[in-house]
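Subgroup meeting minutes
Present: P.N., E.W., G.H.
Scribe: E.W.

1. P.N. recapped why we're keeping a running log of single-chain structure predictions: easier to compare across weeks, and new members can see raw inputs and outputs side by side.
2. G.H. added today's entry (68 aa).
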Amino acid sequence: MGEPPRSTHRPEDGQMPYHGKHAARSAQLTNTATVVSWVLLAADSAVGLLTIVIHRFRCSSALLLLYQ
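Output recorded in log:
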């Protein structure tokens, strides 16, 4: 008879099985997507806050010019 099939969970050659590589890449992509989402959200919040601050200063400057 032939050799019994190798286990995909603990290969003898020390390489990670295909499904393990796929899961690791998938997890890495998920982590990358999460980090990118947080960075974009933080940048969007910063731009929004900066827009409000600039608008306030411009409005108060215009009001100061009216009262002088």
